[in-house]
Design brief:
The chain is of the alpha/beta class and about 325 residues long. It has nine helices and 13 strands. The strands form three sheets. A five-stranded parallel beta sheet has the order 11-10-12-1-13, sandwiched between helices. A four-stranded parallel beta sheet has the order 3-2-4-5. The chain has a four-stranded parallel beta sheet with strand order 7-6-8-9, with helices on both faces.
Length: about 325
């Protein structure tokens, strides 16, 4: 039987960003240094494959830090945690290691600066996302006003001339966020922002790469977990950039090849917490059933890296 011809457009940058690489390395180094088990507050990153792999190596993921024995290390996830969690942990535990992405920490620092300058703070982000909970928890309750969409701006009880500043979650849609920022600037002409963009370089690069190539594709696959904010945004970007048949895929086991019988060009990328083996396995599955030609669509290089926390540096 002749296999159908398909072209796969492998879009990059994709996969692990510097913050995720650092967070996973923090867990592995902590296991090496202190043995198992090691406890992590929340999933270290939002990817099921990574979580399962770390669990098999002796990592226990918890939500309540009270459940951690005082003689075992506790790690904060890449998404960051509130001040309340930090204080709780330090009161209860002997070893606390912070794997918060430095770019999330930068947003925390900016929030505190605004607060100290008596500036009212707006956070653009998704309610209940751990990064948003961690950022809002840097300051006393009620200090930060959450805006998820443009209509939320109507609910702000601010005057045009109030001293206001905004910060954002690091993994948002660039276009959606820019629309909200434009409306905030229209209503509050003197509004302040972080000196540097809060949406992180990896989110920006992955969205721009997909924007540049999605319209050439009949179908687009973003590999990533359902609870990954940045992966979900990539699917939206692919759809908004001209590929209506775009969706999120956990891994190759969830791939239904029949859905791609009529697609000639299939775009593939992955979220910032996805190991490349998951992309390789999806490509392998396509190769078993179709005659595949792979083209690499590269949109700029990434060479960012972050040091491990000082407790783990040799």
């Amino acid at each position: 039987m002749n296999k159908k011809n398909k072209q796969i457009l492998l879009v990059s940058p994709r996969g692990f960003c510097a913050g995720v690489t650092r967070a996973v390395d923090v867990v592995l180094e902590t296991l090496k240094t202190y043995g198992s088990p090691v406890y992590v507050k929340h999933e270290i990153v939002h990817n099921k494959y990574v979580i399962k792999d770390l669990e098999q190596k002796g990592t226990i993921f918890i939500e309540d830090v009270e459940n951690v024995p005082s003689d075992r290390p506790l790690i904060f996830s890449a998404h960051g945690v509130s001040k309340k969690i930090v204080h709780q942990s330090k009161n209860n535990k002997s070893i606390v290691i912070d794997a918060t992405c430095p770019l999330v920490t930068k947003v925390h620092v900016q929030a505190r600066k605004f607060y100290e300058e008596d500036i009212k703070i707006i956070l653009i982000g998704h309610r209940n996302h751990p990064e948003v909970e961690g950022t809002m928890g840097q300051l006393p309750e009620g200090s930060i006003y959450l805006v998820e969409k443009i209509s939320d701006i109507d609910k702000l009880d601010f005057n045009r001339d109030d001293r206001i500043g905004f910060i954002t979650q690091t993994t948002l849609s660039i276009d959606d966020t820019n629309s909200i920022i434009l409306e905030l600037r229209r209503r509050f002409p003197n509004i302040k922002s972080s000196p540097k963009e809060d949406i992180c370089y990896a989110t920006t690069n992955r969205q721009n790469a997909i924007k540049a190539h999605a319209s050439k594709c009949d179908s687009f696959i973003v590999i990533g977990s359902e609870n990954s904010s940045n992966s979900n945004r990539l699917v939206e970007v692919a759809i908004n950039s001209g590929c209506k048949n775009a969706h999120l895929l956990e891994d190759a086991s969830k791939l239904n090849l029949e859905e791609y019988n009529k697609a000639n060009i299939i775009g593939i990328s992955s979220g910032a917490s996805v190991p490349d083996i998951l992309v390789e396995e999806v490509v392998d599955k396509f190769e078993e059933h179709f005659n595949i030609k792979i083209e690499h669509a590269i949109y700029g290089e990434e060479n960012v890296s972050f040091k491990l926390p000082k407790e783990l540096r040799k």
